[in-house]
Amino acid sequence: MILTSHNLATVFEQLPLREVNFGRAATASFEWIAQNLQKKPPHRHARLIAIKQSAYAWRQMVAYLSRLEKNEQLQAYATMRARLATCPADLQVQLGIMLGRLGEKIENQHKSFSDRGYFLGWTMGSHPLMSE
After folding, report:
1. What is d(CA 48, CA 50) in angstroms, rounded to the nearest whole number?
2. Domain boundaries in the chain?
3. CA-CA distance, 83 to 35, in Å (whole number)?
4. pTM above threshold 0.70
């Protein structure tokens, strides 16, 4: 199940979530994203929906990461990088840009001011995750 980030904020504030392993939740979200984006939907619209669902999961992953200390964020990020290395080459490149941008944010070394590297559910024109 994918929760939207505004729903997660309410959950985080209203429930005593001391027992949740947010690092594991973040890496499990990334695992789901990697698996979902490797599927081959039967048509273009189904692929777009898969990308949109993955973008929701990405925001959920970021919400989980926000609940961690920096060293825990770095550990989760390293686990995600290792998982990405097992993906097909095209997905490594496409998702690697987005994961790299997230890593820059975690390490407070955000260098780029371009629009590249943000995980968007919908775009005008071609989507970086679409192989058209």
Report:
1. 5
2. 20-106
3. 10
4. yes
